[in-house]
User: Which sequence fits this backbone?
């Protein structure tokens, strides 16, 4: 989920950078790029991953057997 949000943030930052606009309050294309990188780092750390469990079919129970 965080990876999808990061992709949207990267897209917004790219558009702001192409247009050369800055949102009042100090938000620019680089700010969105850094926010997207932070979201990707959280996604890689496992923070925003889905924890869907469908019975005994997850990888942890298969590794224990």
Assistant:
């Amino acid at each position: 989920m965080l990876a999808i949000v990061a992709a949207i943030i990267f897209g917004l930052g790219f558009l702001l950078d192409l247009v050369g606009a800055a949102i009042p309050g100090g938000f620019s294309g680089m700010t969105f790029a850094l926010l997207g990188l932070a979201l990707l780092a959280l996604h890689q750390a496992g923070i925003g991953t889905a924890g869907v469990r469908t019975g005994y079919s997850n990888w942890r129970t298969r590794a224990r057997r």
Summary: The CA atoms of residues 8 and 36 lie 8 Å apart. DSSP finds three helices and no strands in the chain. Residues 2-52 form one domain. The radius of gyration is 17 Å.
